[in-house]
Structures are given as C-alpha cells and as structure tokens.
Amino acid sequence: MSDARRLVQARPLPALDERMRGLLRQAASFLGVGGIGFLVDIAIFNLLRATVFDPQHVAGGAILAKAVSTLAAIAVNWIGNRQVTFRRERGARLGREALRFLAASLLGSSVSLACLAISHYALGFTSPAADNLSANVLGLALGTALRFQLYRTWVFPAPAVGAWDPARSRVPTSIP
C-alpha cells in the first residue's frame, strides 16, 4: 500500500472527530429535551384550540393557543437544556442566561407562529390538521435549527480555552 493511501486512510484529525462526537451528543440531548417540550407544546396547543381558544368562538384562537403552548414548552426546555444539554456550558450569570434563552426561544418560536399565520390566514388552510402541520411540523423544524444554533453560540457559549469562570472554579483547600 502506498504512503499516500495510508495517509488518507489514517484518522487525520482525532481532535476534530472528538469535537464532532461532542456536537452529535449535544444535538441528540437537545433533540431529546426538545422532544419533551414538543409533547408539552402539542398537548397544550390542541387542548386550548379545542376548548377555550376554539377559532370558531375566539378571534385569533389558534394563534393564542399556540402562544400559550409555546411559553409552556419554553419553560420545560429551559429546565431540560440547562440541566442536561448545556450543563457544562452554563455560566454564573443566571439572569442574563435566562433572558437570552427566552429571547432565543421566542425568536425560534416566532418561526412556528409565522408558519401558522401564513397557512391559516394568508393561505386559508384552517383545519386542525393544517394548523398542526404548519405550526408543529414545518415551523417547528425551522425554529429548532435556529434555536440550537442560538443556544450553542449565544445563550450557552463554550468558555474560551483558558478562560476563568467563577462558576466552574474551585478554591484550593491547600497549597501544594
């Protein structure tokens, strides 16, 4: 076997492989937490849409139902992502992190609301199935990609190599 072929077959960048595995683990955890939030969102949306926010009795009922269900899902996702997905990246500034999480979540959720509004009001697809497809399939998929990127880079950014973070530091109990 030639040297060039061995070089190509060798694992060229183990650090890159490890980073990719870390990213995939983080994405899987994010999707798991999001799956729980998704179930909360869908259940509350459909319950509210069929009862107190029935579009036949409440103007804008579908949008109101989605807004309430979205806020409930954000609360569930905040707890799950902070405790599981981004537990190593979370910082000491809880208030700032919470506000950024809320902003990123609302931005991602606005994608779902926009898809619902366009489908329901602009295109006239007003059935429960159409509302669910536009908000909870297309809108959720697009919003999820946006949220993952914002959470990783803005809400829970990885600390710079060598950076000191008081929340992750331990005070030495003895001097060597």
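Second entry:
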Amino acid sequence: MGRMATPLRALPCTVLLLLVGAAPALGLTACGQREDPAVLRYDGLYRSDPRVSGRVRFSRYLRFYEDGAVLSASFAGEPHEVLTWLHVPFENHGRYVLEGTSLRFSCTSPRGSVDCQGEVLHDGLRLTWHSHVNGQDGETRYQFVELPEAPDR
C-alpha cells in the first residue's frame, strides 16, 4: 500500500504551530498575521466603565489631540453627547507624552490636578492615576469609542 500524501491545506497549520512560540518575537499573531501596533487614537473618545455615585451613573472620558493636548471629563451621558461640548478649550486639560505605547499626562482644572500614566492598548487604555485634589490613587481601564463625526477641536 502506498504512502498517503498530506493534503496541502493542512501544511500551513503545521507550519503555523511551529511558529506560535516565536510569534511574539516576530510580531505575529498565533494565526501568522502581523500584529498592528497599539496606537493612540484621535477619532473618538476613551470611556471608562460606568461608576455610580449616589443615584448618578457616570463615566470618565478622555479625548486626545495629535498636537499633544488631552481633555478629561466625567459625564452621565453617552459619547456622542460628550462630543458636543468636550473640545478645546476645556477647563480640565493637559498635555500628554507618548513613547511607543507608554502614555503619561496630567490634567489640571480649577480644583487641582490628576497625574496619569499607563499603556495604550489595541482597544483602549490602562492607566494608573494619582489625584492631587483628594489624595486618592487608582487604576482605570478605558475603552475606545470611535466617533467618525468627531470635530477636530
């Protein structure tokens, strides 16, 4: 009896299995595709998971601009509502520094400032923060919300 040939469509999976261990070093996903680097986005807002204070449910929003400006606000509404008023100039603002996927900034308002640092992820941000307003520290995860109609300012 002759030897059975391996179907050609099965070979890529075998090769990919060998590459899985080397995938991160090669910048590849487990499927062998090149992984896009995480980038800070300007075509929408970053939104935290909602929090409840009393009877009010609100999220923290961050908006970044290519020129280095960052705006921060807490709001009980939806992202498309926030875009109607969260633009430059805004009272709670700052400048950010981005080095690769490492991000840091301080936002200052009349009440004081909050220092943030963390990482840009593919779908959002992970930030640790320290408030000079109330002395609290924390970590917050933000999801990116794309809003193509976002005005430049």
